[in-house]
Amino acid sequence: MYHSLILDIGKTNVKLHLLDENRKSVFSESRANSILTKGAYPHADVDGIFGWMVSVCQRLTSQFEITAFSVTTHGATAALIDRNSEASSNGLVLPVLDYEYSGIGGGEYDDLRPDFSESLSPKLPAGLNLGRQLFWLQKRYPDAFAKCTDILMYPQYWVWRLTGQRCTEVTSLGCHTDLWAPLQNDYSSMVKNSNWLPLFPKIVPAWQNLGAISPAIAKLTGLSTSCEVFAGIHDSNASFLRYKIRQNNKPFTVISTGTWTVLMSSGTSTSCLSAKRDMLGNVDAMSSPVPCARFMGGREFEKICAMLGGAFGDPVESSVLQELIDKEVMAIPDFSGGSGPFGGHTPAFIGEIEPKQGTETATLYCALMIDFQLDLLQSQSDIYIEGAFLQNPLLCSIIAQLRPNQPVWLSADNTGTVQGCASLIDWQKISSGEPLKIDLKPAVPTRLSNIHRYRDVWRERVQTS
Known about the structure:
Elements: E1 2-9, E2 13-19, E3 25-32, E4 35-36, E5 43-44, H1 46-61, E6 65-73, E7 78-81, H2 107-112, H3 116-119, H4 130-140, H5 142-146, E8 150-153, H6 154-163, H7 170-173, E9 180-181, E10 186-187, H8 189-193, E11 209-212, H9 215-221, E12 228-230, E13 233-234, H10 235-247, E14 252-257, E15 261-266, E16 279-283, E17 289-295, H11 297-308, H12 318-326, E18 330-332, E19 348-350, H13 358-376, E20 382-387, H14 393-402, E21 408-411, H15 416-423, H16 427-431, E22 440-442, H17 451-464
Parallel strand pairs: 1-6, 6-12, 6-13, 14-20, 20-21
Antiparallel strand pairs: 1-2, 2-3, 4-5, 7-8, 9-10, 11-12, 14-15, 15-17, 16-17, 18-19, 21-22
Helix pairs in contact: 10-15, 11-13, 12-13, 13-14
């Protein structure tokens, strides 16, 4: 039996999944995605990730025949490489900057970045606009930057490590980077004006087969020299891709949850987007603009729990939710430090919250944020929820109660990003019409009394905070 490997690099964790011929997970292992703080600036631990990946592969290749490898990663990240560097090195001319590093601000870049109407990319804090990272690195480290032969988006950096093949792919390129003009399907004016265009390799589809892994990687990992590697994809777009295939031209919204909660709406015009609300136009694997809204759902959930008591995995009690609603006790944003539709607002708790009600308070908060963003996106028809919030069934059920005219579906496998990335390997079959099976179950709406009034009060207080 043939198997495939998926390297999934999220902002919080890194996972390696082994899938069988039917794209079923037969093995997975994870490690923390640690940020290294020693050195000039906080940066990704690419050597740690690489060493861990090699170690896991060595164990797997003694038991399984692995014929394909694909990569998905978080966005707002790029690697600056020297393609002529030693094969044994990581190839970097500068460490991979952590997008949460706040030390790269400055008004000079703001004067250069393209207008929202061109990039569909709002001005974001820290390094969440990838163009700001590149500008800062070039200005701060001109000699090192001058040695850069290629700017690789993060999934394609790992593809290069595996194969030696350089490429660019639009889902990462178009993820609030300031580097892409989605409506023109071209690089932004800033890329051209900054003379960065020659540094970006050829754009290829996410499903592009880039050939076999290099002999050096085969020797290190035990993988066969015939194991094929695919171009890779941005993680939220991986979740979105399989629903786009399934829905064809029917409208839908995918809610991809994790450190970030990203809402991606198909069938909605980009005219609904507002830069002030942290809305943006992502780009799907087919190069089409996708209206999106987002907030740091997982991060804010944890922050609220840390402040009030409780944790993400704690059971959520329906009776406690009702008590909070009845007393109009609530959390109002912003708990992320600048992201989301209310980025920059002063976070606060309204009413008296008793000890150990933090998990329920965070549950209501995140459900209301998602509901608000669905309205911003003018979301239509089916809603699909992916990722970490599936571990909180009542949160999903509250969304279903708040959206009575939209069916809410829950991904039953909790590996939407991985499955979307795996579809790249089977793209020839899928594009030829082979059905793409997705295990779904309907979210059963809660029956919380006065939830709609609670929502109205929350929105009124948020808007005036």
